[in-house]
Amino acid sequence: MVGTPNHGIYGWLIGGLCDEAHPGQECFDMQHDSQFIISLNSGDETPGNINYLTIAGDCSDNPDNDGVVRVSSVSLNGAINKEVIGEKIPFKPTFHGDLVDPSKVPEVYNYVVDFLSL
């Protein structure tokens, strides 16, 4: 999982993002203290005989998050949790969207390749 808000979203995202960019209850369900997120995380965060990998972005302009998702929200107990340090790309609003682009953040790609070779 790359930049996945496993433990929910916080702050301005709930009002700004959910109202404008992603209207609908499903966005509000991603709030860190929603019943959906509480239920989702109430049991084993990494069930089954499966290897899990999470990769969080930590943006120098927004410490402890990628401009959208907090590092602490991405990590799962029982997973291999990685963090990529980066910086906001000029003229783009967040580092979050760049995490899945190997030309911009090759560390993510390398973590995935390494994980698949386990």
Enumerate the spans where pLDDT stays under 50 for 5 or more consecutive residues: none
How widely separated are the two ends?
16 Å
What structural category arises from helix and sheet content?
Answer: alpha+beta
**How helix-rich are the residues, as a percent range?**
25-40%
The count of helical stretches stands at 5
What is the averaged pLDDT score? 86
* Backbone shape: flat
What are the secondary-structure elements, in order, as H or E?
HHHEHEH
DSSP strand count: 2
What does this molecule look like?
There is one protein chain. The chain has about 120 residues and is an alpha+beta fold. A two-stranded parallel sheet has the order 1-2. The relative contact order is 0.18. The mean pLDDT is about 85.
Blueprint of the fold:
Blueprint: H1 12-21, H2 25-28, H3 35-40, E1 53-59, H4 71-74, E2 80-86, H5 106-116
Parallel strand pairs: 1-2
Provide a quick synopsis of the model:
The protein has 118 residues and is an alpha+beta fold. It has helices at 12-21, 25-28, 35-40, 71-74, 106-116; strands spanning 53-59, 80-86.
Structural key phrases:
12% strand; two-stranded parallel sheet; alpha+beta; single chain; flat; 118 residues
